[in-house]
Amino acid sequence: MSSGKIRLMVSTNTNIRFLTALPSDLTLAKSLPLLLNKYRTVIRENLGEHHDLLEGSWISQVTLRGCLIGRDEVLAEVLTDGCEI
Q1: Most buried among 2, 45, 59, 85, using CB within 10 Å?
Q2: Phi and psi of 23, rounded to 5°?
Q3: Contact 5, 21 (CB under 8 A)
Q4: What is the dihedral of CA 69, 67, 5, 17, to 10 degrees?
C-alpha cells in the first residue's frame, strides 16, 4: 500500500466545501478526525472563531456519488485522487 496522499473535495450538509489531502493508506474511520479538524479549521479561518457551525460538529456518514462508504475501507482502495466526498 502506498503511503502517498489522496486529494479530496469535501462537501458538507452545511453547504461548506473545501479541498484537502489525506494519507491514502488510512481507513475511513481513522481519517474522520482529520476531516473534522480540517472542517473546523476552514470555518475558523473563513467565518470566525465563534461561528455557529463549530458547535456540535461531527461526521455521521461519508458518501461518494450518493453511496455510503464503510468506515473500515482504506481510502486508496475506494477513492481516487480528486474525488468529491
Answers
A1: 85
A2: -60, 130
A3: yes
A4: -120
Task: Give the pTM.
Answer: 0.81
Separation CA 82–CA 25 (nearest Å)? 16
Q: Where does residue 30 rank: exposed (0-12), middle (13-18), buried (19+ CB within 10 A)?
A: middle
Mean pLDDT of the chain: 88
The full set of domain ranges for the chain reads: 5-84
The predicted pLDDT at position 78 comes to 93
Joined grid coordinates for residue 70 = 464503510
Local confidence band at 3 (pLDDT 50, 70, 90 cut-offs): low
Topology of domain 5-84 in CATH is Ubiquitin-like (UB roll) (3.10.20)
- Give the Cα separation of 26 and 77 in Å (integer): 10
